[in-house]
Structures are given as structure tokens and as C-alpha cells.
Amino acid sequence: MNKIYLEIAKLTDKFRTMSYRLTTDENKINEAVQELMLYFMQMNPTTLKSIYDKDGVDGLTRYGAVALRRALTSKRSNFYYKYEKYYTRIDSYTNNVSVSSNHLDYGNDNNYYKSLSNIPNAEVDNAQLHKLEIIDVELDKLDNWYDRELFKLYYYEGNTLDSLAKKTKISRNSLFTTIDKVRTILKNELNEDV
To answer: Tens digits of per-residue pLDDT, 51-107?
Structure first.
């Protein structure tokens, strides 16, 4: 397992670079990548090993890219609740505090007992990890390697249709059709939204 953790540590700069596609806020990127590293450390070792054994460093990179994308874009992610939502509340609270003469005026908000110790603990969502594993298995079942690889490039590496069209020189409409087809297949196989 130490070998896998060392490989993950080497990917830190790559994850940071990936995050710039989603935000330009340095602090947010650093926090998200740090959370991702913690996420990998708390992850079920068997699951982590199976990802590494199956696809090596590329598998870890794709998995990390998906986790980063969710952390930085979803309001239901642990990262949002742990950092974004909490610090937004603290900022809005501190903006209401003003100094007047010899005392602090807390405005109408008498709840000035807020502290950084109120940050919620991160929990690993094993159900979400299980869904990702099922999606990987279903993708491996696809007959057409072209469809499978385009889907992975789009979702796992966090590409947009425009950036993927530039990289692959494939038209945006063709990419959309292929990705939508794979998404439909996965929905039918998994009986839910992907």
C-alpha cells in the first residue's frame, strides 16, 4: 500500500493543474487537493488497490479527477459542506461585526460564538465509491473501445466538450452523440441517473 500512497503523492501537482479548469482560486484549489489526498488515505485499501492494479497511475488519476470535479462543482459534496458553506457563513457573520467607540457591535446577530472548531468531520461515502466501481465495470463491458475511451476522457479527466474537441480533433457534435449514447447505456444498465 505504501507504493500506492507514494504514487498518489506524486500526482499532487497534476491534481492541482486539473483543478484550474474548474476554479482559479488558489486557496480553494489547495484545500480541494488536500482533501483529495485525505480522501485517498481514508479510502478502503482493497478498493484503492483494485483501482491501482487495474489501471495503475492512470486509474488513480482518473479517479482523483472525478473526485476533484465533484468536490469543486457539487453543492452536495463533502468539500462544499466542509469549506465553502462553512466559510461563507463565517464571512457573512464577520461582515456584520463593526467596531463602534469602545465596544463591538454585533448587529442583530447575537450568535457570536462561532469558531473554526465547528467544521464538520469528513466522511467517506462508500455508496458513491461503489457506484463508481459499478460504472467502471459497465464501461469495461462496452464493445466499442472508442465510445468507452471518449466517455472516460470526458468524465474522468474533467474535460468539457469544447476542450475535448480541440484535443482529439473530433467534432463537438460527434463527441456529444457518443457521450450521450454511453450515458444512456449506463443509465439502462444501472437503472438510474449517471
So the answer is: 889 888 988 898 888 888 888 887 777 777 777 665 555 545 444 444 444 444 444
Q: Which amino acid is at 142?
A: L
Alpha carbon 137 to chain centroid, angstroms:
20
Going from the C-alpha of 86 to that of each of 10, 38, 79, 92, the distances in angstroms are: 30, 19, 10, 10
| Contact criterion met (CB below 8 Å) for 80 and 33 | no
3-class secondary structure per residue, 145-193: HHHHHHHHHHHCCCCCHHHHHHHHCCCHHHHHHHHHHHHHHHHHHHCCC
Q: Domain-by-domain residue ranges, the chain?
A: 1-99+106-124, 125-194
CATH architecture of 125-194: Orthogonal Bundle (1.10)
